[in-house]
Design a protein that fits this description.
Radius of gyration: 24 Å
Bound molecules: dihydroflavine-adenine dinucleotide
Distance between the termini: 21 Å
Number of helices: 13
């Protein structure tokens, strides 16, 4: 069985690549060991797929080389993907912070990619796992297993590795891209779970657990930018968009800093005391944060009096504690729940314009397996579309 191009992994990046690589009549096969393509697309964004972000820019991505993603993101932008979505008549809306979601279902994005692949003539084969790859004289030889595989071996001229990262192994995630990269002499930067809830030791959990289910707007910072979004207390620790974002910048042993109740909390509390000094502190604080959290914070800080009995000094100390609240996470929930894998195939071994290996001609790495990780908010799919497009377009243009 010979194909011009074999793409391993029918996720977001692989399907985008297949739809473009097959455009000029090349024989393109895309395989996946799962029983359906685009499984992560299907479950993404609560079933509505946050498929891109209006503000997607290189600053929203983490990589050992922050410049690497620039070319692909500039050549296939969020506007290009939005144009494709529009041509397929998929209705969408902006939720918050430039995040675009389907009005209906994430399945529409999968159907769109399948239709694009079909139109270009790319073949899809499911329940087929790539096991082993060897370099042949004029391309690659790939050993396949799985019930969807008629032939145990495929040869191809171009080989695209689109097998994603390690997050959610239950959904078929493997470290295959890193294995192949190392086999062909590529460096792989240290991988770790990212966009993941943070966990705490039993003493911290003792006060976090009673708040499980409480969500509050706040600002969270690890060793990176400040994220101003909701955070959520859980039975295991902290989650919610602000925490997930900060988790990508957090390292074991470091603290995270939270700001709750707004940056002008002292002024807010003084104004509340002036308006009604007979209310207790927790009731006044509950005007700006959820009541359960207000009760909990006031009692742990010993603020049990009425507002009128609290001095400026005590109010200020309390407001300061909430605006510079330091916590030491014990760890994260790991790949089991992480939305993405940070790190991956080192970008210095890849051509930023085409995603082709600098060591092995005709070998390409795209999507999450590469050391480019987006923030929460549609950025990771945009990287999948842009890198998939870059490799697919390059392959289609070759003679
Ligand atoms: P992806 O993981 O999608 O695809 C890789 C494919 O390769 C899989 O289908 C896998 O089965 C296959 N495979 C692996 N090894 C193989 C082998 N040896 N042989 C054959 N096939 C193999 N991002 C975003 O921008 N907006 C969002 O709303 C969300 N939401 C979200 C929710 C959840 C729960 C998760 C886990 C993740 C997200 N993400 C997200 C992240 C996003 O899903 C992710 O970054 C992309 O799917 C990455 O696309 P890839 O194509 O690179 O890998």
């Amino acid at each position: 069985m010979h194909y011009d191009t074999l793409i391993i992994g029918a996720g977001a990046a692989g399907m985008m690549c297949a739809a473009h690589a097959a455009r000029t009549g090349r024989r393109v096969l895309i395989i996946d060991h799962a029983k359906a393509p685009g499984e992560k697309i299907r479950i993404s964004g609560g079933g509505r797929c946050n498929f891109t972000n209006l503000g997607a820019a290189p600053e929203n991505f983490i990589s050992a080389n922050p410049h690497f993603c620039k070319s692909a993101l500039a050549r296939y932008t969020q506007w290009d993907f939005l144009d494709l979505v529009g041509r397929h008549g998929i209705a969408w809306h902006e939720k918050t912070l430039g995040q675009l979601f389907c009005d209906g279902s994430a399945r529409e994005i999968i159907a769109m990619l399948l239709a694009e692949m079909d139109r270009a003539g790319a073949e899809l084969r499911l329940l087929s796992a790539a096991e082993r790859i060897e370099k042949a004289t004029d391309g690659f030889r790939v050993a396949l297993t799985g019930t969807g595989t008629k032939s145990g071996e495929i040869t191809c001229r171009h080989l695209v590795i689109a097998t994603g990262g390690k997050s959610i192994p239950k959904m078929g995630a493997t470290g295959f891209a890193y294995q192949v990269a190392e086999q062909f002499g590529h460096a792989v930067t240290k991988t770790r779970p990212a966009l993941v809830p943070l966990t705490f030791d039993p003493s911290a959990l003792a006060w976090i657990k009673p708040l499980a289910g409480v969500a509050v707007d706040g600002r969270v910072r690890a060793d990176g930018p400040v994220f101003e979004e909701a955070l959520l207390f859980t039975h295991r620790g902290l989650s919610g968009p602000a925490i997930l974002q900060a988790s990508s910048y957090w390292r074991e042993g470091e603290e995270i800093t939270l700001t709750i109740g707004g940056s002008a909390l002292f002024e807010t509390l003084k104004a509340a005391r002036q308006t009604n000094g007979r209310r207790d502190a927790a009731t006044a604080l509950a005007e700006v944060i959820p009541k359960r959290l207000a009760d909990h914070l006031c009692s742990t800080h010993g603020l049990t009096e009425r507002m009128g009995d609290l001095s400026d000094k005590r109010l200020e100390a309390f407001a300061c504690a909430l605006s510079d609240w330091r916590l030491s996470p014990m760890g994260s929930e790991g790949y089991r729940t992480a939305e993405v894998t940070l790190g991956g195939v080192a970008t210095d071994g890849l051509d930023a314009r085409t995603m082709e290996s600098r060591h092995v001609p005709d070998l390409f790495f795209i999507g999450e397996g590469v050391d480019v990780t987006g923030w929460l908010g549609g950025y990771n799919f945009q990287w999948a579309w842009s890198s998939g497009w870059a490799a697919g377009t390059e392959i289609a243009s070759r003679h």
